[in-house]
């Protein structure tokens, strides 16, 4: 009997205040299925693009791990928080004279220094594992956690608007950031504030793009989950956005699903991973072997009848 449970990928607009796992729970109820996963965790404070896989769609989520992302954020200069964002209360404050000395030129210089290929120390309350345990769990348990710097790529760090509010003790800077996977925007806020000598943290964060998936295409999750859910993106259409692709006939598809190596002159260069489709179905993610051989790394069972 064929599997009639939902199979595919959903791009949603995560609401503020909900964890990524909380989104997964809602999608399970909305689509009536247990097999749901997500790629690229967003903190509860953050909103925006969260990509979810349902059924065999979960097998594609790993290919989203290394894609670049775009964020819009508000950096508040003048105070720091333990979490580098608004999920905790400020505990360090700038000297008023130092904050008053902050200028557009100084902010621009600080942003420029954090653009390009940089070594970034992630926030201590990140999900990075330290000896098998999440860093944030160690911090919550009272440990003093120091993470190692990692090389990340910030291709764009653009200032959109700056609001000086000296009477309120802060300066708010709206920014747009294009960056590599593994970049922490709240760490950029922290480091910008430190470079200016006034501390800094995030007060708003919205992810507007994950790889080829844009916020304009994202689905809003309704409060009323009795509403019929939208169509999922098919495995084949998503795979084509993530990898080079080629199509095969039914006999070749059957061989690939059985773990056999097929020979073809239609495949890209050796060592490439490609999406292999048959009609509108995704057959496999396959590896191109030297000499043109093609063998499945991950097979997707499809009905060839």
Automatic annotation (TrEMBL):
Residues of the Pseudouridine synthase II N-terminal domain: 28-185
Listed transmembrane segments: none
Coiled coil among keywords: no
Family matches, as InterPro entries: PsdUridine_synth_cat_dom_sf (IPR020103), PsdUridine_synth_N (IPR002501), tRNA_psdUridine_synth_TruB (IPR014780), TruB_C (IPR032819)
Keyword Isomerase: yes
Reaction catalyzed: uridine(55) in tRNA = pseudouridine(55) in tRNA
Active site: 43 (nucleophile)
GO-annotated biological processes: mRNA pseudouridine synthesis; tRNA pseudouridine synthesis
Keywords: Isomerase, tRNA processing
Domain tRNA pseudouridylate synthase B C-terminal: 186-221
UniProt-listed Enzyme Commission number(s): 5.4.99.25
UniProt GO molecular function: RNA binding; tRNA pseudouridine(55) synthase activity
One Pfam family, short name: TruB_N
Similarity comment: Belongs to the pseudouridine synthase TruB family. Type 1 subfamily.
Biological function: Responsible for synthesis of pseudouridine from uracil-55 in the psi GC loop of transfer RNAs.
Descriptive protein name: tRNA pseudouridine synthase B
